[in-house]
Amino acid sequence: MHQPKLLISAALLLASATSVQAASSSWFGTEGGRIRLVSTGVPDENGQLRGALQVDLKPGWRTYWRDPGDAGVPPQLTPGADGPLGAVTLHYPAPQRFVDHGSHWTGYSQSVSLALDLSLDPPIKGDPFTVDVFLGICQTICIPVQTQLSLDPDLRADDLFDRAVVGAAFDSLPHEAGPQLGITAVEMNGSHLLTKASGLAGDDPLLFLAGDGGYRFGTPRFDTTTQRFETEILSRPKVSGSVTIHYTLSHGGNAVQGSFVLPPQP
After folding, report:
1. In this model, does residue 98 exceed pLDDT 80?
2. What pLDDT does residue 47 have?
3. Is the dihedral of CA 172, 175, 180, 186 positive or negative?
4. Which residues are the signal sequence here (predicted)?
5. Which end of the chain has a smaller Cβ tally under 10 Å, C or N?
6. How far is CA 75 from CA 44, 68, 116, 218, in A?
């Protein structure tokens, strides 16, 4: 496969999957697959509701992690203009790293469900809401999918299948990093970021980095001699404050997620 281009031959897809309002939205179909929003039903007394974005991919197609790599479109979910939804927090299972004709990308080559925390404000039960979705589903070209998914958490709130989908999405998330496995030290060395981690013995580990505020990273390389990852900094923001870097670390069949803070750079 060739590196996907964002100068797309296909037109940007814009549609609204609102024909059925329920605890799961209607499926929205595109060339490489389909997506829908699923929830556990009625929110709790604080207006918190768990959900999942199901991305059902056709064979040979893929979608992306929070930092897609050399090319691609990371998922973006935002509350629709109408309804009580105040915030959407998106969580990612551990991704994979791929190389296509020299292009590195990070994401998922099979169907995936992305776990969601939905915050309703005010937390009134029974009010439908919409979520604006923008993500890339790619093969030899990358098709940006833009749509609005509609959901009424008060309908079919006891659907066991929907609850199972959401539960599986959260179960697939990496554990929080800790002393047994996680980043323990970070150092800036010119144009490279050096990171040391605990619990790295045996198989080669994989580190995935995603920075806020404009940081872009190359592929982290693990040095078995120093037991550190060395990552080229491709670009860095011109900001006065510190920057949070999110990471996922996979090793020996386990995966953890965490973050660290880079100090302001001169």
Report:
1. yes
2. 86
3. positive
4. 1-22
5. C
6. 26, 9, 12, 20
